Amino acid sequence: MRLTWIAGLLLLISSAGLAAAPLTVLVGQQKPPYINTANISGYEIELLAEVVKRMGYEPVFLFVPNARIKPLLEQGEGDIASLQPVVTDETGLFYSNPYIRYQNIAVSLASDELVISHSSDLGRYSVLAFQSARTVLGPDFTDMASISANYRETVDQQAQLKMLLSRRVQVVIMDRNIFNHYRLQQDSVEGLAIHALFSSTLYRAAFRDAAMQRAFDRALLSVMLDSWHQRLQRKYFGEENQNLDHKMLCSDNQQTATRPKAL
Question: Which of 66, 71, 187, 189 maximizes the CB count within 10 A of its CB?
Fold first, then answer.
């Protein structure tokens, strides 16, 4: 009886030790095929979940507007801030290597025959872009957005295509995978013109803890080198369009910020 009790206690301790600690990941709101808040799925959600699990934690997702992700992390909310652009004005947080790539495009109605070959050309038209577009699509786009009276941004990306098709705006700016997702949901889609104005935009994850950032990068590299990642891309995009540069993923955290020294 005593041996059975000891064995049971050891099994209980062992089982408890197997339970992974939770890690809260701050992510954006509804944005299929990247984020589906209804069932906590999507390309970005499943990718981050896999990375966190390979770090040895259990992912817990907190859905917030993109503009609130970084401030919440800085305020001590959550453990990982997703979707942080590659910028030079570091804030004392620790940044991962890029984990996701967005390819943004401008879309107009083909029948309108709009002439758009540069970001500055958008200033002539009514434009509806995704939230924070003015901060990530380059200085020329930022300048255009700053002076245009007909430029707006929205969190609701499904509304972008609807407003374009109903002629409430002339141009929408959105990621091509998001565009394709909503385009396929339309019963009938009028001829659309795609304007490839932008280079791809890479995003990183941000952390308050340097050790956790390094663990994320190691797990990320493991995921990217695994055929699991290719299957995930085909599941949500029908093709592999998220293959990041191997040298970038093996950069030994060259983009890590260091906290400023206390004065």
Answer: 66
Supply 248's token pair: 């970038």
> For position 64, what pLDDT does the model report?
95
Give Cα separations from 192 to 44, 105, 147 (angstroms).
27, 12, 26
- Can you give the pTM of this predicted structure? 0.82
Tell me the torsion sign for CA atoms 118, 123, 124, 129. Answer: positive
Task: Judge whether 7 lies within some domain.
Answer: no
Closest CA to 73 of 98, 93, 47: 93
pLDDT of residue 11: 39
Mean pLDDT of 8-19: 45
How far apart (Å, rounded) are the C-alpha atoms in residues 258 and 247? Answer: 22
Q: How far apart are CA 241 and CA 224, in angstroms?
A: 13
| Nearest of 185, 248, 206, 191 to residue 71 by alpha carbon | 206
Please tell me the distance from the alpha carbon of residue 161 to that of residue 133, in angstroms, as a whole number.
16
Q: What is the mean pLDDT of residues 165-179?
A: 96
Average pLDDT value for the chain:
87
Does 13 fall in a domain?
no
| Residue at 246: amino acid letter | H
Residue from 197, 205, 71, 204 nearest 137 by CA: 197
The structural domain count of the chain equals 2
Greater confidence (6 vs 103) lies with 103
Asked if residue 102 has pLDDT above 90, the reply is yes
**Is the same domain home to 183 and 139?**
yes
